[in-house]
Every structure is written in C-alpha cells, then in structure tokens.
Amino acid sequence: MRKLLLTLWQYLRAFVLIYACLYAGIGIASLLPITIPGSIIGMLILFLLLGLQIMPPDWVMPGCYLLIRYMALLFVPIGVGVMQYFDLLRTQFGPVVVSCVISTFVVLVVVSWCSHLVHGEKKIIGHKGADKK
User: Fold this and answer.
1) pLDDT (0 to 100) of residue 54
2) Element spanning 47, H or E
3) Which residue, of 15, 34, 58, 80, is most buried by count of CB atoms within 10 Å of its CB?
4) What residue spans define the domains of the chain?
C-alpha cells in the first residue's frame, strides 16, 4: 500500500509541476506584446528549472516518461484536424511545399552559422598561427 501511495504521489507531483510550467507559460504569453505560444514558454521554463538544477529531474521523470510513451496517441486529434482541411491543402500543395523547403533551408543556414560562431576556430595566444591576419 505504501509503495502504491508513493507511486501515485510521484505521478501527481510530476503532472502538477509540468502543468504549473505550462500555465505559467500561458500567463507570460498573454502578457507579451508578441505572439509566442504559451506551451513553448512553459517548456522553456521547465528547461530552465531543470537546467539550473532548481528542480530535480526525478520530480518530473514519471510524468515525462508517461507522456513520451504515449506521444503517438496525442497526435491523433491533430491528424484528424488536418484531414478536415484536405481540400484546402490539396489546392495549396505547391505553396506549402515551397514554404517548407525554404524554411528548412533557412533553418539549416542559421543553425550552421550559429554553430560556426560557437564552435569555430579559436585563436590561441602564443601559437604560431594566431598572429596571422
């Protein structure tokens, strides 16, 4: 009985923390002058709490594991919603594909540029090649 109560407490704590971050993100998104989804801000809040070790990962692990385990099931409503607009998507297939290709290319260029800035060639003081240029 004690183990069952402990497991229930861990799941309850995990979901309360995940939903608290979600609703905090929704609240912050409603205050911002630009449109950013509250769920994205909530994930960033959760990431910061975990990354700065303010919240131990064990507190949210049971809920995250459960959500990830059944993630495919969570995409069913989205798939049904897309099927409602099949005629519109069929008529606009060309612009949708072009925008996806262009946005993918832009993301690749920006990520590679940022990666080059972060991980690029470092000059070492006192090294023979550092004094060139």
Assistant:
1) 93
2) helix 38-51
3) 15
4) 1-74, 77-120
